[in-house]
Amino acid sequence: ETPPLWQAVFCYPRGWVNTGSPHEEEVSVLFQQVVQTDEAIRKPDPIPVSSEDERNALLQLESAILANKATKSDLQMKELNFEKDDDSNGHIDFITAASNLRAKMYNIEPADRLKTKRIAGKIIPAIATSTAAVSGLVALELIKVVGVCPFQAYKNCFFNLAIPIIVFTETAAVRKTEIRNGISFTIWDRWTIHGKDNFTLLDFINTVKEKYGIEPIMVVQGVKMLYVPVMPGHVKRLKLTMQKLVKPVVNKKYVDLTVSFAPEIDGEEDLPGPPVRYYFAHENN
């Protein structure tokens, strides 16, 4: 009996134009090759990935996409019409192999080719699931982001594949929170401050004021109050370095702080602001 893995390997991509068919003998040689691993060897500890690493990875991906000079003529693709009764197109073979591989992962009883073919008329609704639709729609919006499309190009989508109904609506601008004097922020904003080894709390406050035009009156890290003027002894902290106050974690280049600002009129509540990310070293270091 042909293993499901062999079938999956042999179902080569048929969507490309002028794609040559592989010889069964050539694929058979590759199938016999097995990678031997030593289970006794201890696996390396997972490398922690910070949000900054993820951001850098996205920036690299964006640069790669923008640098791609591929044209429509380079994308030599063709449409495929699903046909369960044509054994030469490999459609039933692929569906059988793919579904059995998934069944093996979840300890589900596999189905033979005949059973798969018998229910193939209903397989399209099972493949075109909500997950696939959402993935495609999200990918379209990401392409617009990378392409720096105008705001009007972005769309929200509401759909129900069972009815079916698909409705696109125009997106609404993100709500802005006004601080004062024309200074505002959204839920997507984050202010950044780059420091150095001898960067004090007072330097941090002054840098925020110079860069963003408003002076902080309270600095908090999580549940730890770094600077609250009304608290006894906190004024003395202005001369302490950020390294001493925050105590950075190993291999972490920054810390996220919550900062409040003084109201225009004394006696009113402190004004909120966006998260402030403080980098322990300057961006050029």
From TrEMBL:
GO terms for molecular function: ubiquitin activating enzyme activity. GO terms for cellular component: cytoplasm; nucleus. Pathway: Protein modification; protein ubiquitination. Residues 154-276 form the Ubiquitin-activating enzyme E1 C-terminal domain. InterPro entries: ThiF/MoeB/HesA, Ub-activating_enz_E1_C, UBA_E1_C_sf, UBA_E1_SCCH, Ubi_acti_E1_SCCH, Ubiquitin-activating_enz. Belongs to the ubiquitin-activating E1 family. This is Ubiquitin-activating enzyme E1 C-terminal domain-containing protein. It comes from Micrurus spixii (Amazon coral snake).
